[in-house]
Specification:
Length: 450
Amino acid sequence: MFKLSKSYNNPKHSKLTRIKNRVKFLTYSIMHELLQCQFSSSSLQNFLLLVEAGQFLWYAIHPDFPFLWQTSFAQYPRDIVKYLQVDALFRQGDRSFYYTVLYIFAASMLGLFMCVTFIVVKFDVVMKKSSTVIYYLLRLLSLCALLLITIGPIPVFHTFFEAITCDKDDNLDNDSKCYTGIHLVNTIIGSFGLTLATIFTFTSQLLFIDFNPASNIPFAGPQSIIGFYKLAMKIGLPLYITLDSDLSTAKGFVIFYAIAWFFALVLRYISRGYYNESVNTMTTVTESIVTWAAITAVFHAHLDVGQVDDIGLYFFLVISPFVAYSYNFLVTNQRWREMRINVRKAQKVYQIERFINTACFIIENKEKPQGRIELEGLLRYHTKVCKKDINDCLCHTLGQNIANTLDSSGEEEKIWYRFVDSLMADSIAKFPKNSRLHLQNAYFQQDSPK
Ligand SMILES: [Zn+2]
């Protein structure tokens, strides 16, 4: 950051390079400030994830799918998720609602754009957040970024897609003339909003993240593609529903949707989710339930012959808790397997990364019986493969301490962290040029007690 701030007006560089560096510097600095003043808590994050799952669930149990249950009982789950996105209300053809939403979203995008411009212009002068206006603007932007990485994209993109397309099957377009008069005005507003929304959403998705395992930001997590994968779904779903508003291809869509969610679960499994335990559990539970809903829709569309009945709905409701529990168990259970690697001989950097993160997590939770057991397991496994002398590795000291159940004065914790630190140092010696390991080491050195 410091290097960039100097280099963006280095006269030796060409003008283009200087502009590029300046844009980079400002984007990173502002995003850093946004993360500093974000106010999300685990409960707010969990709430947003729940709403997001409801938005996704809507497209698995859509009431206009002809092959799905149409009873009054099936109405309840649909009513719950009905108001979490704009599709249900657009479908009713309420044009004044649609105009209101379109203008509000377009105005918000313009407002966001003006906020960002204002901050960019003023940023050099008020780098220290001395201005109250800047401080509140940053708070506001931070909230917007939080919404854009969670529940924002589906309704926002849907509204703008609706504005730029003209579909005669659609209740909102059926008696208006395409691309003339008010429709043309809406199309222009829509494409302008869509451009800004795309820029803001992608920037937030890319930079409004925290990789620090010790971070107290609830959405901090390891580097992973899952965020972008879900964003692609959040843009793809409204696009599909706008282009095929009478759902003539619904039978094919549900297969595609179920496969997409299945991949999401695989990606989530590989990426090891968020550092915050409750947020992590919320994602695994909600995502597996949405996947299960999509799979039941496939069963209905392709395997269920004859009359449309409710059995599938009971099937979905009864099996859901089991699916959620099993998937969550699989994801949490990884922690045990991740501990069973020899860090000094690990071939892949991500194995070391996970080992260190999980080790720190267990050390923090060592007062709990479960954490204690895991910690002892970690040490036992390490001692088994450790080739170092008694004086060269802390594992021997720790082994004796565990036998004598040492005090809880915090001294023991420091030894544990020094033990992990020595493993970290060994890994860096093995992969001296790996930037991910160096970054993790920097976080570790900053946050562990010395
Ligand atoms: Zn050892």
